[in-house]
Write a structure and sequence with these properties.
binds zinc ion, 13 helices, single chain, 454 residues, 8-stranded mixed β-sheet, alpha/beta
Length: 454
């Protein structure tokens, strides 16, 4: 009886809130986000107290337990951990020394790629050859490559306005370069960091070895380091490089997705997921990628609770584990949902940095896309205007098979790859207002989609 009465009361309260003009609800959501500091404290903990959160590391577990408590404190009805299998890779001592009888000696800033094979402490010493594409590699052939280190030096194209596309045009060197080079007998690979920035931070990221080809050590070099190496090679093509990278692969281990849920009052068995990924690379605090996205998801729960917004559908904030290496967190979440026969209405991911919000991308077409685009009018007071097709994220992608509308949160992405996967992605690089304008925009969009059944 008590449950029934509270349900009726909640439903009445919710319909009262829903009956208010959406503009007023959105104003209160933005006010709340911009005047509460909990999100800032969460971000600081994840960056400064947990730190580089490689899947399976103690730092990542610290982040798991912290965000579990943060979701409880935010007022989620239920919070739980979901077991996820993750790879276990650890970085060791690493260095890159260049020796030239013409140019002199120097040391370059390098960082082993995730899942890379390691060397011993003496490392690999050999000649090096610069290439810009896999075609160039094939043209050179085994004769020129055998026994040498291959240096992939194709930059991200700075003329491309969409920085994700610019990154996408360069990143195959990091992902497939090691096996492409090993097929011609290369001893190791150095890859120019996939970023538009020109600085001395190496940007790491995962590499994938092809089956049946020797796994050779692979490291990213900073863009300034790549430019210097290229200049030196033009003057002295017989210079030598000593590469040391004492990283190791271990058997898979177990980690967790962290999930917090508010039950819907009308359709509790339909779910809207909002998330980011909790893991990061070890050489970085992973503030923009993607502690900020996780914090914004927690904020959705907190803001709903604080303002008494009751969603029709159940809202889940999910901190996905292991996006960076093999996305097993997202796959496990969708797999469990499928087995339980859950209905997933929509899913939103924030994983493009916590910079100033621009809008949202929707994986929709026709009438549904037009309806979603029409929501942009509610966001005009906040200078958030880009509502268009295209969007999602790697953690929520597996939910598409369950029919969930895919939504990507889109901030201003011009500076994102200055931070991405590097030691430059720190707490200090995040602006409180930008973080919270994003939290408010995400909470508002979820509210409108749930309210209007878009
Ligand atoms: Zn990310």
């Amino acid at each position: 009886m008590y449950r029934l009465i509270s349900f009726v009361l909640l439903a009445a309260l919710s319909s009262h809130l829903s009956a208010q003009e959406p503009e007023k609800i959105l104003a209160s959501v933005f006010d709340e986000a911009l005047s509460d500091r909990k999100a800032w404290n969460h971000l600081e903990f994840l960056c400064k107290k947990a730190g580089g959160r490689l899947p399976g590391s103690s730092a990542s577990l610290k982040a798991v337990w912290y965000t579990r408590k943060a979701l409880l404190d935010a007022g989620a009805d239920t919070v739980w951990l979901q077991e996820v299998n993750v790879p276990h890779w650890e970085r060791g001592y690493e260095s890159c020394s260049v020796r030239s009888s013409v140019c002199g000696d120097t040391i370059l800033s390098v960082s082993a790629l995730g899942l890379s094979e390691g060397t011993d402490l003496k490392g690999i010493t050999s000649g090096i050859i610069e290439v810009h594409s896999f075609e160039e590699l094939r043209d050179l052939g085994r004769e020129r490559i055998q026994g040498r280190i291959v240096f992939f030096n194709r930059p991200a194209d700075n003329k491309i306005i969409n920085t994700f596309s610019g990154y996408g045009g360069a990143v195959n060197q990091r992902i497939s370069g090691p096996s492409e080079a090993a097929a011609f007998g290369a001893t190791a690979v150095i890859v120019r960091s996939a970023t538009q920035a020109l600085d001395d931070f190496p940007h790491t990221g995962v590499t994938r070895y092809a089956a049946g080809i020797k796994k050779i050590p692979a490291l990213a070099v900073s863009t300034l380091g790549a430019e210097l190496l290229s200049r030196w090679l033009k003057r002295d093509s017989s210079l030598t490089v000593n590469l040391v990278s004492v990283c190791r692969n271990f058997p898979d281990t177990v980690s967790y997705n962290v999930i917090g849920e508010i039950r819907g009052y009308l359709k509790p068995d339909e779910y809207i997921t909002v998330g980011g990924h909790l893991d990061s690379w070890d050489i970085t605090e992973g503030a923009h990628d993607d502690a900020g996205g996780c914090v914004q998801a927690i904020e959705v729960i907190r803001i709903y609770r604080k303002l008494g917004i009751r969603p029709k559908r159940s809202i889940r904030a999910v901190m996905f584990m292991n996006e960076e290496i093999s996305s097993t967190g997202g796959m496990t979440y969708a797999d469990k949902a499928l087995k339980k026969g859950e209905v997933h209405y929509a899913a939103l991911e924030s994983d493009r940095g916590v910079l100033s919000p621009r809008g949202f991308g929707f994986d929709a077409s026709g009438q549904r896309l037009e309806k979603l685009k029409s929501l942009s009018k509610y966001f005009l007071p906040y200078n958030i205007r880009d509502f268009d097709a295209g969007g999602g994220g790697s953690d929520i992608a597996p939910l598409k098979a369950l029919g969930a509308l895919q939504i990507g949160y889109i901030p201003d992405i011009q500076r994102y790859f200055d931070y991405h996967h590097s030691a430059n992605d720190t707490f200090e690089q995040v602006n409180f207002r930008e973080l919270q304008l994003g939290s408010a925009a995400i909470a508002s969009l979820i509210y409108l989609i749930d309210l209007f059944d878009y």
